[in-house]
Design goal:
GO terms for molecular function: transmembrane transporter activity. It contains 14 helices and no strands. With 346 residues, it is an all-alpha fold.
């Protein structure tokens, strides 16, 4: 896909939604509220003065200030992971033309999980950098496999076939994960907390490791958005507009796997964030991916951060992992979407 191809795509693109500015302002306000709540709420409530001390007064070494400093890195990590999962979900839905595509539904998270378990069991990996590369490999292989299985037959890769292929693949890979872990207690001990999906272990080291993958993935997604708008009209129309559909799908899928794999490696297999964020933005703003993709990043950050806060409050004095909270919210929504007649095409 070259620059001349993209310039041809801009003509059929939609105009800026009339409510885009209002939605953007509301999302930034919600984002600020989520950040403040994440710093203040938890097993230990802190006041505004303690938040200020933790943010701006490094010389103060009180317990409350240290709690705030820990929550700062956790909050930033949650925002970045939520943004990555939101964009990944938008890309997967666009590439597959499947309105219920999501890293967790298509089995991509489970592929990353399997490779990380194999790394822990057989390669003795233990660092974030090693987790990321194994998760990316597992995500990519699983995505190709699921799309290949879902594309078989006369009708090609329909939404229902992709979901069924993803569910079957996820079930098979989950069985392999259990088969590897059960005889190895040390693997189970190291893996069980990661498996649930949590941002509680987020620190500045993991954030630094994650940021390059996030930047590359989001840049590819934004550049691909105009051409993905044309792809939504069908392969024949997109080809007529100058889009190389095969290359476009490859780059967009690469971006989705990069974002999902990196987030999964560091935070665990957190599901439904991409599904929820993209559907909310598409419902409000319409189908234009030039706006849906960046706004899915913001809404994904909001959803994951507020879910983390809810998990802390529900599980107090401990915490309920964010992966459990997003699954509890996302599963009923997935059932509703699957029951809609329009789910057969995007």
């Amino acid at each position: 896909m070259n620059s001349s191809s993209i310039s041809k795509i801009k003509k059929p693109s939609l105009n800026t939604p009339r409510n885009f500015t209002l939605v953007l302002i509301i999302c930034f306000i919600l984002l600020g509220v989520c950040v403040f709540a994440s710093l203040v709420l938890g097993s230990r409530l802190v006041g505004l003065n303690e938040v200020i001390d933790g943010l701006f007064h490094s010389n103060i070494d009180s317990y409350e200030a240290n709690v705030v400093r820990k929550r700062i890195s956790r909050t930033v990590f949650s925002l970045l992971c939520g943004a990555a999962l939101g964009v990944s979900g938008a890309l997967m839905q666009a590439v597959t033309r499947n309105p219920i595509a999501d890293p967790s539904i298509l089995g991509v998270n489970t592929g990353a999980t399997l490779f990380i378990v194999c790394g822990i069991a057989f390669l003795n990996i233990s660092t974030a950098n090693e987790y990321i590369w194994l998760a990316l490999a597992g995500s990519a292989i699983t995505a190709v496999f699921v799309f290949g299985i879902g594309s078989m037959g006369r009708s090609g890769a329909t939404p229902i076939k992709l979901v069924l292929a993803g569910a079957a693949t996820s079930a098979a890979l989950s069985s392999l994960v259990l088969a590897i872990m059960i005889p190895r207690s040390h693997v189970m001990d190291e893996f069980r907390f990661w498996q649930v999906g949590s941002v509680g272990s987020g620190n500045w080291s993991s954030i630094t490791t994650f940021i390059p993958f996030l930047i590359i993935g989001i840049l590819i997604a934004i550049i691909s958005a105009p051409a993905l708008n044309a792809l939504a009209l069908g392969d024949d129309v997109a080809t007529g507009l100058g889009v190389r559909t095969g290359i476009l799908r490859l780059f967009a899928a690469f971006s989705a796997v990069l974002l999902c794999g990196a987030a999964t490696a560091l935070a665990g297999p957190i599901g439904f964030v991409g599904l929820l964020s993209t559907h909310v933005m598409r419902l409000i703003l319409g189908p234009d991916l030039r706006f849906v993709i960046p706004m899915s990043a913001i809404s994904g950050a909001i959803i994951l951060t507020i879910s983390d806060v809810v998990g802390r409050l529900i599980g107090s004095p401990g915490e309920l992992e964010v992966g459990v909270v997003t699954a509890f919210i996302g599963a009923p929504i997935l059932i509703i979407l699957a029951m809609r007649s329009k789910v057969s095409s995007l």
